[in-house]
Design brief:
CATH architecture: 3-Layer(aba) Sandwich
Low-confidence stretches: none
CATH class: Alpha Beta
Structural class: alpha/beta
Number of domains: 1
Shape: globular
Mean pLDDT: 94
Strand content: 15-25%
Order of helices and strands: EEEHEHEHEHHHHHHEHEH
Length: about 300
């Protein structure tokens, strides 16, 4: 398929997947998929989109599964309404998306904000989730803002955050290359793919909302919601796989220790030379681990 518009751009053939859409709450939500069989749903974080799973989809489909990578509302090729994006709203939206596809026996693959959002769906619909694959995500809500990298204080500043994130696109242009350990993989083509869904000020609203939206401390209105999600994960005793990139600036070995306590049955892999966006740094390792995990837990 050759690109003739932003929704068909293959970014040099690296993203050769046809777009699929469902309507949820008046918004058009996008996903890509390939294969058939039990669904493997891969949920992205900030400021990425389904493109980050492009190297996962073909091999997982080839192993006999239905590989699905949705774009969260406000990201990728999903609609970007000019509205307030919240953690609860993202769970609602993703839940509507996955229920519209009527997915069952799901293997849920999550990373970054995709963790609390994807697992929020799982906590609501545990009967639809069979296996968990957690790449790197926060295991529990933050108790204090000091648990975040210092740069996040800039995003929370009124006006400054809007200028940097929405005006200058600093989150995409800064966090993506900073979060990939293997700098030779930060190519012009890759950056063009990550900039593509966010061409202007309004299209970047969801990026800023994520940068500011961590439920920090018990007084935050969504702290209890994320705590309930974490408590559900701690009770999950199905098959689980934990993959931790040790060069992650946000959720490295310290977060892995908490995940191990929550999911003592999990298989664990660590990657020395991978950063926060481990799908870019280490898909050559991660994808075979996921397929092996799927086959070991039929």
């Amino acid at each position: 398929m050759s690109g003739s518009g932003p929704e068909l751009d293959t970014f040099g053939g690296t993203f050769p997947f046809a777009p699929h859409y469902v309507s949820v709450g008046g918004a058009r939500l996008h996903h890509v998929e390939a294969g058939s069989g039990e669904p493997v749903v891969m949920v992205h974080g900030n400021p990425t989109w389904s493109y980050i799973y492009r190297n996962f989809i073909g091999p997982i489909a080839g192993a006999g599964y239905r590989a699905i990578a949705p774009d969260l509302i406000g990201f990728g090729r999903s609609d970007k309404p000019v509205s307030t994006y919240t953690y609860r709203g993202h769970i609602d939206s993703l839940t509507g998306h996955l229920l519209a596809l009527d997915l069952r026996e799901i293997t849920l693959v999550v990373q970054d904000w995709g963790g609390p959002i994807g697992l929020g769906f799982a906590a609501r619909h545990p009967d639809r989730v069979k296996r968990l694959v957690i790449l790197n995500a926060r295991p529990r809500p933050f108790e204090a803002a000091t648990q975040l990298p210092p740069i996040f204080a800039w995003w929370r500043e009124p006006i400054t955050g809007e200028v940097l994130v929405q005006g200058l696109n600093a989150f995409v242009d800064g966090m993506i290359p900073n979060g990939i350990f293997k700098k030779e993989r930060v190519t012009a083509q890759l950056m063009a793919a990550y900039r593509s869904p966010f061409p202007d000020f309004n299209s970047r609203a969801a990026i800023l909302a994520f940068a500011r939206g961590h439920p920090i401390g018990a007084s935050h209105p969504e702290y209890k919601l994320e705590s309930r999600t974490s408590n559900w994960v701690a009770k999950f005793r199905g098959p689980a796989l934990l993959i931790c990139p040790l060069r992650d600036h946000a959720y490295g070995a310290r977060a892995l220790g908490v995940w191990r306590e929550m999911l003592p049955q999990a298989t664990v892999h660590t990657i020395e030379d991978a950063g926060h966006y481990c799908q870019e740094d280490a898909h050559e390792w991660i994808v075979p681990w996921i397929i092996e995990f799927l086959l070991q837990h039929p």
